């Protein structure tokens, strides 16, 4: 069995060296961690690794696909919100059970899910072994871990309660995921109904109406105006369907690119705040997110100005984010948060009044939790209102379109039968 020489540090910072017998480098790393040390360098051989060798990163050997490396995560690798939530939950449970951070990450790194975390988690583990803090390792992957996540982990490391902070992050991301799922579930039924209605109308225009058109042409009678309009629309579908598809694709690409610009995002988010039903859902979701995020940050010791900056980046709506930025610029040492927010035109009076009460009583966490609960309930109510309004609206639209088609065809049939004296 190969012998590996190592240089390591204890948790108190003292340096040590020695050697272990292991099947491969990964097994050697595991043995060193179980001894309570943080590996600095591990090389195969009986001698102590030279100074220049210790500076080299651990590389992946050709014969061992599980060996560790310290390269930065590829930019294309990105963990989804659900994957981040599962990772946080499992890491929190492992740390709460008494496992060290290195061993907990090693346990998660060996699992294979077929997703981006199979690459990202082992790399985070490698960097922890090399001496990085968890927050620094996460900060190197901003495409997967948000500023909120990184700052709360950093606060947990400073306070020595990383497991508790991860549990709070789990609760936060579960609420975010639940809000997204509520909105998504509310839109599934309307999308299905509209999609089926569009397919039925296209089938009618392309296959049904042309058959009636050939019959009308053989009879040679003058058709009513609605029937002529319907036949004209059907003919346009038949002759220029490819043009319509191309135009729709180009329009979708153009809109997507425009919404990717800062100007496009600002206009789109401002429009969301003006549409009656959509406005209520967007604002309720944003206010609940604002309260929950600010409460989580302040409870973990993040300074007020830093917390407001993080909330600004994660609130989701550019107009509301701009208002938070203006409030942050007006906040000074010793100043309250509620007054700058109340001086704007976005946050409602109820929210700022509840926040002011929390500031006066010294219970900001409790006030923010009450605000979060209040607007989460309002979000649920607004989603129900939206679904209640959308269902009859879609039925009316489909009824009008189908009714126009049916009446147009029946008018032509009635004219033909009356001309034949039947």
Short structural description:
The protein has 16 helices and 3 strands.
Reconstruct the topology from this structure.
Blueprint: E1 3-10, E2 15-21, H1 25-34, E3 37-44, H2 51-54, H3 81-96, H4 101-109, H5 117-129, H6 134-139, H7 147-159, H8 162-219, H9 225-259, H10 262-272, H11 276-299, H12 304-314, H13 318-330, H14 338-342, H15 349-361, H16 364-419
Antiparallel strand pairs: 1-2, 1-3
Helix pairs in contact: 3-4, 3-8, 4-5, 7-8, 8-9, 8-11, 8-16, 9-16, 11-12, 11-16, 12-13, 15-16
Walk me through what this model shows.
The chain is mainly alpha-helical and 422 residues long. It has three domains: 3-54, no CATH class; 81-145, no CATH class; 174-422, Receptor-associated Protein, CATH 1.20.81. Helices cover 70% and strands 5% of the residues. It contains 16 helices and three strands. It has a three-stranded antiparallel β-sheet with strand order 2-1-3, with helices on one face.
């Amino acid at each position: 069995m190969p012998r590996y020489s190592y240089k390591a540090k204890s948790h108190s910072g003292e340096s040590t060296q020695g050697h272990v017998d292991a099947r491969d480098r990964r097994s050697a790393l595991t043995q060193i961690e179980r001894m309570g040390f943080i590996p600095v360098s591990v090389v195969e051989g009986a001698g102590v690794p030279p100074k220049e060798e210790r500076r080299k990163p651990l590389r992946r050997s050709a014969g061992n696909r599980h060996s560790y490396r310290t390269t930065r995560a590829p930019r294309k690798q990105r963990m989804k919100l659900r994957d981040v939530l599962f990772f946080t939950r499992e890491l929190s449970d492992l740390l709460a059970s008494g496992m060290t951070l290195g061993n907990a990450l090693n346990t998660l790194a060996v699992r294979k899910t077929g997703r981006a975390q199979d690459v990202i988690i082992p790399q985070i583990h490698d960097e922890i072994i090399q001496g990085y803090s968890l927050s620094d390792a996460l900060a190197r992957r901003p495409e997967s871990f948000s500023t909120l996540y990184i700052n709360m982990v950093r606060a947990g490391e400073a306070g020595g309660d990383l497991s508790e902070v991860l549990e709070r992050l789990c609760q936060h991301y579960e609420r975010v995921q639940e809000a997204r799922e509520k909105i998504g579930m509310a839109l599934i039924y309307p999308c299905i109904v509209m999609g089926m209605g569009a397919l039925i109308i296209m089938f009618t225009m392309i296959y049904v109406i042309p058959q009636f058109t050939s019959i009308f042409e053989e009879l040679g009678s003058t058709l009513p105006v609605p029937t002529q309009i319907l036949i004209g629309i059907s003919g346009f579908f038949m002759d220029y369907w490819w043009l319509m598809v191309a135009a729709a694709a180009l329009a979708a690409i153009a809109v997507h690119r425009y919404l990717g610009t800062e100007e496009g995002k600002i206009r789109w988010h401002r429009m969301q705040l003006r549409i009656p039903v959509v406005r209520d859902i967007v604002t309720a979701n944003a206010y609940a997110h604002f309260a929950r995020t600010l409460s989580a940050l302040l409870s973990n010791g993040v300074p007020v100005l830093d917390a407001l900056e993080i909330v600004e980046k994660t609130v989701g709506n550019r107009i509301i984010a701009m208002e938070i930025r203006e409030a942050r610029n007006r906040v000074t040492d010793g100043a309250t948060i509620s007054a700058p927010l109340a001086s704007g035109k976005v946050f409602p009076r109820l929210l700022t009044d509840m926040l002011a009460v929390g500031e006066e009583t010294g219970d900001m966490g409790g006030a923010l939790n009450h605000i979060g609960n209040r607007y989460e309930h309002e979000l649920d109510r607004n989603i129900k209102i939206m679904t209640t309004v959308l269902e009859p609206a879609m039925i009316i639209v489909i009824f009008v379109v189908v009714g126009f088609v049916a009446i147009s065809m029946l008018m032509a049939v009635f004219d033909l039968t009356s001309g034949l004296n039947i």
